[in-house]
Amino acid sequence: MSRSAFQVETVHLTQFEAGEARDRADFVRRLGDSLRDTGFVKVAGHRVEAADIRGAYDAARAFFALPEGTKRRYLLEGSGGARGFTPFGSEHAKDNPVGDLKEFWHVGQELPSGHPLQALYGENLWPEAEVPGFRAHTLALYRALEACAGTLLEALALYLGLPERSLADMIVDGNSILRIIHYPALRDRYLEGGVRSSAHEDINLITLLPAATDAGLQLQDREGNWHAVDAGAGEIVADAGDMLSRHVNLKIPSTTHRVVNPDSPDAVRYSMPFFCHPRPDVVLDCPDQLLAPGEARRFPPITAHAFLLQRLREIGLIN
Ligand SMILES: O=C(O)CCC(=O)C(=O)O
Ligand SMILES: [Fe+2]
């Protein structure tokens, strides 16, 4: 792909949800081609409400402004940061020993009480005493992004020639995580050699990113060039992760991306990636119908849970 031809497509979800057969087919083709060629796509016309995004960002600003000691009350030692607060500099990419210049909060799946997966997932933590409304705002966004991800996975399955619900069904009651990230001003907090988010691929099936509060996200094309990925107002950026890539025998690549440090030492950034995960027992294994005649499976089957644990160790979130 030449540099000038490089483009992350913008697709309108209404075309798929409410369009005629021809519109739906066009959406499926453009979504799939963009993910196949760049690992990324921008989604407009989705039903994630601007008010939910704003509400979650406001809750995030209020939480991260709290004293460090208060925030650390929501640190669950030994949990790998699966829920609650993860302090500045804790997470590092596979290939970078220096921690990323970010702190974050994880909201996980909430299931009805007595659900068999609840014990494995653990309970969410909520800083309601300090930030009233945090729970309601972030859970509303979680649900809206989960629904949007399900629809995108339906379209992607059609693109691949799979049954429409085959990918979307994997995430029902899945181990998805809403990560609310604060990248402080470099003037306030910095680690020598650190970057906001060092180059990495996402672990999960797909990631949805409501527009961040500032620029900085970049993806790497297959020639090694970096390109800014800036969502237009109200757009959601989506990217393919390693679980998807593995499940489809690399037909949709996971794409390396990063968040670069700003020029200004005063610039603060917030972002809220939604990492869309299967249920833990779902087996990642390329369906036969995706394999061309004579094409070999590149990976042995693995459960989503085993794959996740392997990757969390590599990024320093569990031992
Ligand atoms: O902050 C962003 O825009 C992206 C963060 C990211 O790529 C990640 O947390 O996996
Ligand atoms: Fe990422």
What does this structure look like?
It is a single chain. The protein has one domain: Jelly Rolls (Sandwich). Helix content is 29%, strand content 18%. It contains 8 helices and 15 strands. Strands 1, 2, 3, 4, 5, 7, 10, 12 and 13 form a 9-stranded mixed beta sheet that branches. The protein has a 4-stranded antiparallel beta sheet with strand order 6-11-8-9, with no helix packed on it. Helix 2 packs across helix 6 and helix 3 crosses helix 6. Bound molecules: 2-oxoglutaric acid (AKG) and fe (ii) ion.
Give short descriptive properties of this protein:
single chain, about 325 residues, alpha+beta, Jelly Rolls, nine-stranded mixed sheet, 15 strands, binds 2-oxoglutaric acid, binds fe (ii) ion
**Pairing-aware structural class of the strands and helices?**
alpha+beta
Bound molecules: 2-oxoglutaric acid, fe (ii) ion
As for the CATH topology, it is: Jelly Rolls
The total beta strand count reads: 15
Q: Give the overall shape.
A: globular
How many structural domains in the coordinates? 1
Provide the β-strand percentage band: 15-25%
Protein name: 2-oxoglutarate-dependent ethylene/succinate-forming enzyme
Catalytic activity: 2-oxoglutarate + O2 + 2 H(+) = ethene + 3 CO2 + H2O; L-arginine + 2-oxoglutarate + O2 = guanidine + L-glutamate 5-semialdehyde + succinate + CO2
InterPro entries: DIOX_N (IPR026992), IPNS-like_FE2OG_OXY (IPR044861), IPNS-like_sf (IPR027443), Iron_ascorbate_oxido_reductase (IPR050231), Oxoglu/Fe-dep_dioxygenase_dom (IPR005123)
EC number: 1.13.12.19, 1.14.20.7
